[in-house]
Design brief:
FAD-linked_OxidoTrans_Type4 (chains A, B); homodimer; five-stranded antiparallel β-sheet; globular; Uridine Diphospho-n-acetylenolpyruvylglucosamine Reductase, domain 3; 452 residues; Uridine Diphospho-n-acetylenolpyruvylglucosamine Reductase, domain 2; eight-stranded antiparallel β-sheet; oxidoreductase (chains A, B); alpha+beta; 4 domains; FAD (chains A, B); oxidoreductase activity (chains A, B); Alpha-Beta Plaits
């Protein structure tokens, strides 16, 4: 079989110099040679490409929208890239079971817009709205609303998957409850393209909340803000989002967007949202929320207008982009028990003081997911790699010590692989590799990611 | 190593004639010879027992409270039974992360009572409150409240597991978000003792809802009741439980308990609950609920007093027990898309008419989980097995045709194994077996369950 027997349109098979740099230049600005980049339109073409890869002993890397932050799609050379961005159709929306069936190349933003226009809601809300649903599933993407609604994992009812030998299986079911053998759905979710190629996803959607209101609480210290978060959770407030950041983190995006954050008081902020079907409940919970923040010494509590709410969330969404305008940086994504959240902010302050590197932290406080950015500033590449590695080795050891994990929602990919190895037991990694072998004995799908 | 070096107390190692029939007599009343029944008290003893089984090439079956309905713990002869019922301690309750740490032998009822006494809530609520948490995890037990709160799977943060070779691993994390390699937590949940032995479970608990109210709607037909359920779900009512049964199903438990169901009208019932933190919301939703049921021709809508609520739920919980007083029966547990629910009730009526066998159906309408009971009545054992097999073969083919699954919350075990094989593709089963081999290459843990 030849590639042009599988896909006859030249625009959907790129080889040699026709391959864009987005695929062939890695994060260290090194160019690698790829076998080809293919853009299949349907499952059969994916199957044929996989069989072609088997016949020619090629490694396959599956691409979505390339918004990942863990280098899970980096190439080493010689690979067949299967880019699913043209498999981007919404196939069906079944209102009886509230199931949306999509191809993997549909973006998260498209899914959200589509279902909201019909009065329904797809809660997973990662920062990159142009990320693909296939990629969201492959990394178990989370986002702002995970504290109330969970992550992508909680919204996948069923999938169609092409395996390493070209077998096509269906995992999960549109039926809600499932105790019928090992749960392959959950195994493939978060497997970063190493176990199979997702060609169809059946998503769970829910009725759209009728009311939504955001708030800002400004605190005089990190500790006060963090204690307030624990109080909010412990009191059973049904909060949709609780974002935590320091004044200086939001300053980067203020500069980038040329917008002003609604509060100028305090040094640490909580940006929070309630949503639901009952306005009175939101108002009642907001009163409890305000009281809790005051009990924890908040210097300001703002009920945001729609305009201020858009500004505040836009600034929050752009913290990372703001930081990137200043310096190259390493984006982190660790996950700690919620009561350890503040300790990591303190720890990163210590690291800053000791290392001389800027270390900006912000995160999803309601679920213990911290996004720290370590800034390269003016270090040479060698100094930067060395210093970064030293900081990360200590950081991940501390994360592990408190029972946390190196990745909450970005995945392990290539960037966190050494640290994943550092913190997991060798027995644990052994069994992950055994699972990989069970599905992909030739190590054909995205080898070298997550583990060696 | 000898067994009495591992466990020195004779009361915790039973062999020969000291083994109770509960372990050694199978569902066909056949007695099998077992190697031993051991009652370990801690993880180290479990590890030593597993190593002993490896040295002596014994098969291991793990027991919880023996409340399973899928014969997942049936013995074939020669096995070492590891009964975890004496590992029954509540180890820790961490209020910061709302995590309850328990040994596997603690029962579901004990967990519910313990956390409720402290103002918290463990939602998974299978019929058998004396089932063990280890067993709940091994079957992904569901129950009445799954429509709002999900199943056991959604409440397991982390586990300690002893593997087939005696390795001990930890899966999952107390940290909420996890995108760190393949999710082993979810793989072990629902694996029915075939992949490892659960020795510690970290459960997620939530704040206890302050208000709870149950309702009965009586309908003139199955169709009307089923359409009402779809309307309730589609309208976004945040309902905790929606149980569906026919008049004649509840009649069995009325007879058994000598109690009267609060409604005597109609032929099909919905027994429903709302719970939550806001009484006004429950009242408002109840008004919407009442309107929906009236729109679907309900002949009665009752807001239950506490006493009537207890009676109604007690009668619901005892449908199966009531049926059992009349006849031997086969308890089913299939899972279908919610909009197929009523079709299966109609189908079972047809089967009854054609087969001459009674086929009582009831179930968790809100999540498409149907518990049918086929009654043996006065058939001979041969006739019963033959007729039952014919009915089940057709039933599971139909379940599969609509995208459903043979088990929603009981597991496959031994009883559904032939039908699981019938409805799943051979490729799918191949990969399940590959996973089994990855964790248990000697096929030492509960072999012959789920698949051959």
């Amino acid at each position: 079989m030849k590639l042009d027997n599988i896909i006859s349109e030249p625009s959907r098979i790129l080889q040699g110099s026709r391959i864009p740099e987005a695929y062939s230049v890695n994060e260290h600005s090194e160019k690698v040679n790829l076998h080809a980049v293919a853009y299949p339109l349907n499952t059969q073409e994916v199957v044929d490409l996989v069989k072609y890869a088997n016949q020619n002993d090629l490694v396959i890397i599956t691409y979505g929208a390339n918004t990942g932050l863990a280098e899970a799609t980096s190439a080493f050379g010689g690979e067949l890239i299967i880019d699913l961005s043209k498999m981007n159709q919404i196939i069906d929306f079944d209102l009886d079971t509230l199931t949306l069936v999509v191809e993997p190349g549909v973006t998260n933003g498209e899914v959200q817009q589509y279902v909201e226009s019909k009065g329904y809601f797809y809660p997973p809300d990662p920062g990159a709205k142009h990320g693909s649903i296939g990629g969201n599933v492959a990394t178990n993407a989370g986002g702002m609303r995970a504290v109330k609604y969970g992550t992508t994992r909680d919204y996948v009812r069923k999938m169609e998957i092409v395996l390493a030998n070209g077998d096509v299986i269906e995992t999960g079911s549109v039926a809600i409850k499932n105790s019928s053998g090992y749960n392959l759905n959950h195994l493939f979710i978060g497997s970063e393209g190493t176990l199979g190629i997702i060609t169809k996803v059946y998503l769970k959607v829910i009725p759209l909340p009728k009311f939504k209101q955001s708030y800002i609480a400004a605190f005089p210290s990190l500790d006060d803000a963090a204690e307030a978060v624990l109080s909010i959770l412990r009191n059973g407030l049904d909060i949709t989002a609780v974002e935590f950041f320091e004044r200086r983190a939001i300053a980067y995006s203020e500069q980038l967007l040329n917008k002003t954050f609604p509060s100028e008081n305090g040094v640490a902020y909580l940006l929070m949202t309630f949503d639901g079907m009952h306005e009175a409940v939101i108002q009642e919970e907001a009163q409890r929320l305000e009281k809790i923040t005051h009990d924890h010494y908040a210097v300001e509590f703002l009920v945001l207008s729609e305009e201020d709410s858009l500004t505040a969330w836009d600034l929050r969404d752009n913290i990372l982009a703001g930081i990137l305008t200043i310096s190259e940086q390493e984006p982190l994504d660790y996950s700690v028990p919620v009561n350890e959240f503040v300790n990591f902010f303190k720890y990163t302050h210590e690291v800053e003081a000791n290392s001389g590197l800027n270390f900006i932290s912000f995160g999803h406080a309601g679920d213990g997911n911290i996004h720290s950015s370590i800034l390269r500033a003016d270090l040479t590449q060698d100094e930067w790699q060395k210093k970064k590695h030293e900081i990360l080795t200590n950081l991940y050891a501390y994360v592990s010590e408190v029972g946390g994990l190196p990745s909450a929602e970005h995945g392990i990919g290539l960037v966190k692989k050494p640290y994943f190895k550092q913190v997991m037991s060798s027995e644990y990694l052994h069994y992950l590799k055994q699972i990989k072998m069970a599905f992909d004995p030739d190590n054909r799908l995205n080898p070298g990611k997550i583990f060696d």
